[in-house]
Amino acid sequence: MSKRASPDDRRRDLIAATVRVLAERGAAGASVRTIAAAAGVSPGLVTHHFGGVDRLVAASYDHIAAQVAAALETAVAGAGPAPRARLGAYVAANFTAPIADPALLATWLALWSLARGDAAMLARHEQHYAAFRARLEDLLGACGVAAERLRLTAIGVTALVDGLWLELCLSPDSFSADEARRIAADYLAGL
Amino acid sequence: MSKRASPDDRRRDLIAATVRVLAERGAAGASVRTIAAAAGVSPGLVTHHFGGVDRLVAASYDHIAAQVAAALETAVAGAGPAPRARLGAYVAANFTAPIADPALLATWLALWSLARGDAAMLARHEQHYAAFRARLEDLLGACGVAAERLRLTAIGVTALVDGLWLELCLSPDSFSADEARRIAADYLAGL
DNA sequence: GTGCTTGTTGCACGAACGTATAACGAGGTG
DNA sequence: CACCTCGTTATACGTTCGTGCAACAAGCAC
Fold this sequence. Notes:
Chains A, B: Residues 8-68 form the HTH tetR-type domain. The structure is a homodimer. By secondary structure, chain A is an all-alpha fold.
């Protein structure tokens, strides 16, 4: 019983509902009916606007990846010209709103599990992580990290950030986002 | 069409089949019928021996967690008495067979996604990670890490190891297990 | 050999899944 | 106002899910 909306708005609503459902009920609960109910529309709309639930999930992945990348870029832009500050801001932003939001972390984890076994989703993941690492290598290079150590260093930073994300999502009582930010900062300081 | 077997053997077979299916088809493919087919038995046996697929998955989680903990403990025991060597062995073992096995990493990732939304599975995860961190704090303390920095340091090491695991599983072409071991060793050396 | 225990199977059942499709109705254009 | 476009709903269909249940058969006690 929802009002008529423009295709763009409706697509946005459905993606937002997918993200919400993924965060609250995990990958197993991301059915067409559940998502449609969360968006307040009928299940048929998913097929109508996306052609299938798989493509809706893929669109949700793209949306979140773009949102995360934009938040990181905003943090870098606001850090001023100093290379170390820009690198620190890029990493610390991963533990600051809106990225540090536990619901977003839960959504990302559910998408990871859905990515396994789906070639298109795996390619999306690969592309997003390659972009993340490339940006990291860029910022690390500006801080004077030797070119031959650039790749491994970027992988290590990415892994640390991902691991802190994961534990923050699965065991939110073990430590705080502030502590995660501090662990990452110490790691960068040690390079 | 399987021969009669003892309950213990059959339970072991079913757990092994669950781990295999989880690794090959992800969390979405872990249905009773798929698991039973992988074990070469009828679907009804899952209910008969475990009382439901949820408890079979939980038992698989326990089995893997115990297997990983045992492999880590073996590595520590084989490292001699020096505290630094013991710590290094404990961390490096995470990227050595049998833990470094990509299939095991895939299984673990699938179990993580299944753990979300299930209170019993979340409790299992919490318990396993608490044990992992406690052992890590023990080894770090023996190396002279200050008591007040122990908790945060252990969280950071755990996060780095988990992140390297994850990326190794999702993007196996990005870097090798050897490189992961080296990144972790460098991190420990910087403490 | 006879009978009992119990591992094992095959089937059936209800529920939930994804999606195709026809009918409905709101909103813009003539 | 009439008409058409298209977003939306409701329904239906086939598949797959988890699991309960009755029947079968293998191994053991006697």
